[in-house]
Specification:
- The protein is mainly alpha-helical.
- The chain has two domains: 10-89, no CATH class; 98-173, Arc Repressor Mutant, subunit A (Orthogonal Bundle), CATH 1.10.10.
- It is 77% helix and 0% strand.
- It has seven helices and no strands.
- It has helices at residues 10-28, 36-58, 61-89, 98-123, 127-139, 142-148, 156-173.
- Helix 1 (10-28) crosses helix 2, helix 2 runs antiparallel to helix 3 and helix 5 crosses helix 6 (142-148).
- The longest helix is centred in the middle third of the chain and has 29 residues, at 61-89.
Length: 176
Amino acid sequence: MSVIPLRSDAWWTGLRVQLESRARIVAGGSRSRLSPDDLVHDTVAKLLASYGEEGLRARSQDQLLSLAWRTMKNLAIDAARRRTEVLASGHDGEAPDPVDSRGLADETLAAERRGARVREVLAALSDEERCFLVHVLETDSVPAAQRHCSWPEKSPYYVLRKLLDGLRGELEEHRG
């Protein structure tokens, strides 16, 4: 089933012709073994999902084709990366090893536990410390965080270092 509506609309016909010519160029130079038809289909599906038909029709022809070209190239790059990862893993379409799946589940569980511990440690901070740390992380600016949280002028870098060292100590203490 084609994503491009099956109607004799000149706009869709023109778009399809343009995309097909570009898809042959991209698919020919891609290591992903995508067919031009698949590339056209995936590009239109992504564009429709992102912008809707009205949003696409509202764009000028140049804008639309530029957007489609960029989307098509990104799809080809993503497909090539996936293919490279599959070939590097040695599976090449085979079912994954059950040991690998179990290892992935263990890693996911460990990450969830670390995340829960980080949330606990952050919840234990005072409101002022939490305000300061959040704004340092959001703005990447200690002086901006200091001003936002109305902290005094004395060495905010020392306070930040002390706060981060305390958090690191708490998290390492409960590791495992």
